[in-house]
């Protein structure tokens, strides 16, 4: 029996396929992310608040739902379902796992389920690379980078910076786990072209010796509290969102991806809002930077705090789906949609 007209097929896209599509295409993914930011800034998205599923018996763990709708040239609806279970690391498996569901905007039917931990890491890293490029325009090109936190996200951010033309004379590494810090440093040495790789004994030493600081931790509350550590005015890619005290935030130029999304859930900017009683310390969004509405001063540290928008995952996921479909490589699940007659 032929497929019901108007009902799309349903495909499952495993992580191996996701990796093959994205591997080495850093500049292409950054352009995708920039386009999604522009569509979002132009108002052609729906990106409601994320929903956090928490567990009384597992307080460090959570699963987050990010529903979204992306307009523009490649419209798609969908949801990312991503878990964070920090205790996984001790068991030798990654902290985060995720799937992404894409829905057809015309019928609402799901088009595909994609393994999404790679998509999530790639869109986060591409966002950081885009921000690093645009937020340092007009400044001297940073030559020293420091990574605080050395997991999957740090590795992807390093790859996306290198893949979009960045090089550094020195790369600093610090992690609360000496084993993880050494492992990341060894990874950087194997990758090459990272200049001198330095293992630091503490956060202050890492921050003071870096022109770009990447926070990619699992911190649930601020642990970097002294604004004096940032008086050399670095760019801070505050990807993990909860590392910096309100005092550090209030002493910086602050750029976020979306103000309403970022200032909630006890992120560092949210705590700064609670302390100051207003949002005046937020200078603007990355969209404002992309459109030239916001110029970045060079006399203060610059902190980019991206909450992470579901529309970014949709943009990357739709791109992967379209490439695999065009190449005839979609793994379609036959008869996934079964009850297609209104009265049986």
Total number of strands? 15
What do the pLDDT scores average to?
A: 94
- Unreliable sequence segments: none
Number of helices: 11
Radius of gyration: 21 Å
Q: Main β-sheet, in a few words?
A: 8 strands, parallel
Distance between the termini: 15 Å
Which band does the percent of strand residues land in?
A: 15-25%
Instruction: State the order of secondary-structure elements, H for helix, E for strand.
Output: EHHEEEEEEHEHEHEHEEHEHHEHEH
Shape: globular
The structural class is alpha/beta
Residue share in helices? Answer: 25-40%
Strand order of the largest sheet: 10-9-8-11-12-15-13-14
Protein name: 2,3-diaminopropionate biosynthesis protein SbnB
InterPro entries: NAD(P)-bd_dom_sf, ODC_Mu_crystall, ODC_N, SbnB
Organism: Streptomyces sanglieri
Short description:
With 344 residues, the chain is α/β, with parallel strands linked by helices. It has helices at 15-22, 26-41, 117-135, 152-163, 178-191, 203-208, 246-250, 259-262, 268-276, 286-290, 310-326; strands spanning 11-13, 45-46, 51-55, 58-70, 76-84, 96-103, 110-115, 144-148, 170-174, 196-199, 212-215, 235-238, 253-256, 282-285, 302-305.
């Amino acid at each position: 029996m032929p497929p019901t007209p108007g009902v799309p097929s349903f495909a499952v896209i495993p992580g191996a396929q996701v990796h093959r599509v994205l591997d080495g295409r850093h500049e292409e993914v950054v352009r995708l992310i920039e386009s999604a930011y522009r569509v979002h800034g132009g108002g052609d998205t729906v990106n409601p608040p994320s929903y956090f599923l928490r567990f009384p018996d597992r307080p460090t763990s959570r699963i987050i739902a990010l529903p979204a709708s992306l307009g523009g040239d490649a419209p798609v609806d969908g949801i990312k379902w991503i878990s964070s279970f920090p205790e996984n690391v001790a068991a030798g498996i990654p902290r985060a796992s995720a799937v992404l569901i894409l829905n057809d905007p015309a019928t609402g039917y799901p088009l595909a389920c994609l393994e999404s931990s790679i998509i999530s890491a790639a869109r986060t890293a591409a966002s950081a690379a885009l921000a690093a490029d645009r937020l340092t325009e007009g400044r001297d090109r940073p030559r020293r980078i420091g990574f605080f936190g050395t997991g999957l996200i740090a590795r992807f951010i390093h790859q996306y910076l290198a893949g979009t033309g960045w090089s550094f004379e020195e790369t600093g590494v610090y992690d609360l786990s000496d084993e993880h810090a050494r492992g990341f440093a060894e990874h950087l040495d194997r990758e090459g072209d990272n200049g001198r790789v330095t293992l630091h004994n503490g956060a202050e030493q890492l921050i003071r010796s870096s022109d770009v600081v990447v926070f990619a931790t699992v911190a649930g509350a601020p642990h970097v509290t002294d604004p004096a550590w940032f008086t050399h005015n670095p760019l801070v890619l505050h990807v993990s969102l909860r590392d910096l005290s309100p005092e550090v935030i209030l002493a910086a130029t602050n750029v976020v991806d979306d103000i309403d999304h970022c200032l909630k859930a006890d992120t560092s900017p949210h705590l700064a809002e609670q302390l100051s009683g207003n949002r005046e310390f937020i200078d603007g969004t990355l969209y404002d930077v992309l459109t030239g509405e916001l110029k970045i001063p060079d006399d203060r540290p610059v902190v980019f705090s991206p909450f992470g928008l579901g529309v970014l995952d949709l943009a990357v996921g739709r791109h992967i789906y379209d490439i695999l479909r065009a190449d005839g490589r979609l793994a379609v699940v036959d008869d996934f949609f079964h009850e297609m007659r209104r009265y049986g």
